[in-house]
Amino acid sequence: MSAPTHTPRTVGVPGIGTLTIHDTVLPHGRVQFKVTGPHIKGTFIVAPEAKRGGTVLPTTVQVQYGDGLEPQTYYTPRPDEPVVYRVGVHGHTAGLDPDNIPTRYFLGPYAVASGRTFLTERLPDGTRRRTEAVVRCLLELWRDRDDVAELKLAAAVARADEHARYEEQQADQLEAEIQKVTAQRASARRTVNQLTGILRRRAGVVLPSDPTPVKVPFFDRHGHQMGILTVRENPAPAGARPGSVVYTVQGARVAGSFTVERYRYNNTPWPEGINITYGIPTSRYGHEARDEPTINTIRLSGGWSSSGDTGRITLTTPERLPARIRLSPTTGCSAPVATERRASGVLRALALRYLARPDAEALHLAAAKDRAPALLTATRQQLKELREQQQKLTRKAAEHRKRAAQYRELLAPLRTLPDIQSDPSVTIAEQEARGGPGRADVGRRRRRSPRMLNARGRDSIGPRAALGDQRRSTPAVRPG
What we know:
The chain is an alpha+beta fold and 480 residues long. It has helices spanning 125-143, 148-158, 160-200, 337-355, 360-411, 417-422, 428-433, 470-473, and strands at residues 9-13, 17-25, 31-37, 40-48, 61-65, 83-84, 87-96, 111-114, 120-121, 214-219, 225-234, 245-251, 254-261, 274-278, 280-281, 289-290, 294-295, 298-299, 303-306, 324-326, 332-334, 451-453, 459-461. It folds into 3 domains: 9-158, no CATH class; 161-205 and 370-414; 214-357, no CATH class. The strands form 5 sheets. Strands 1, 2, 3, 4, 5, 6, 7, 8 and 9 form a 9-stranded antiparallel β-sheet that branches. Strand 6 (83-84) and strand 7 form a beta hairpin.
């Protein structure tokens, strides 16, 4: 790296005049420029930006206004801040590309004017234009230095440990997500296998409807009998969902039809739970029904859906079940408490009668076969999306692991060939793995440096190989 310039240099800047610049190399790849010129005097520090998640070797720089270390209170002035047209310039400008220096309006929101009260305000236009011209000049001087590669490496090494831990943390989080996605994929594959097995099973024998009236008692939640119902089975209408049974009920202030079937609105291969509709649905997916029952002379609509375990249904539980009065095709209100209590007893009795049918397994299989094709298509699509998500997470985790290894490589001490050969603990295989010469490499050209990922995930040359031939002619920078 170039030594500090003890003899100031003079640089002519169009529109400003001649600037006297004294530059000094600071630790961590930072370069201090003390600038004196017409209507301007102060210190600028140009530092490579070793940003978290950016490229391993910095590609942009930050210009700091004033001397001192990088962290600083926003309203506290730095030592020797530049004074331009008697206005103190405070803050910094980040994200500057020395190979593509902007022309104007690039100082950013953190370059402000500082006053005696330590309050900040917008830079005047004249101060801003002159400061921009000086910053452009300093970026050109920094870009043309012979030790730019060494400065970038020193900045990267200064924060390599912090960035390595960050990359490892990101990789750990992604790998935890990969485990979750892997479990979800396994569950989805089991669902696909179960649905395929349901479709391949031979359909069971469903008994025809029996119109013979049957006396069925029903009870309230305390176990007191509320009456006896006369229940008849009716043939399912055209277009009814497979596995459903229509019951016509008379007696004990109850009259009308009820449609009983399995609950179909979950994602399990086998439809669980129970669904009872007041009346006979007029379509597969609509909310309209005909022959809706009346209980206590009140016509009810809607129904009861339960996705839980049907084994918990008894003559007394669940205690309260829905009973609503239709006000319009889309609105309704709750029925009186007495009507709700009687409706609950009827719903529990019909649910138990449906579950106790001798062809209950055949009805269950018919309901499962009816919705299996659509559920199978949705599960296969989900499985495809999970596979793509897992591949994406795996690639990201590998990139973070690779970047962490590259940062760790920056922290490793440089070892020359005599050091490696004098260490008896280093075998030939380890020398070859570290990139050093083994027996097979004697007389051969030096191997190419490992490739690295930049911020976009593309390959770039390794951090130490980026120095080229400068390492052979200049000493390495040690972080301060």
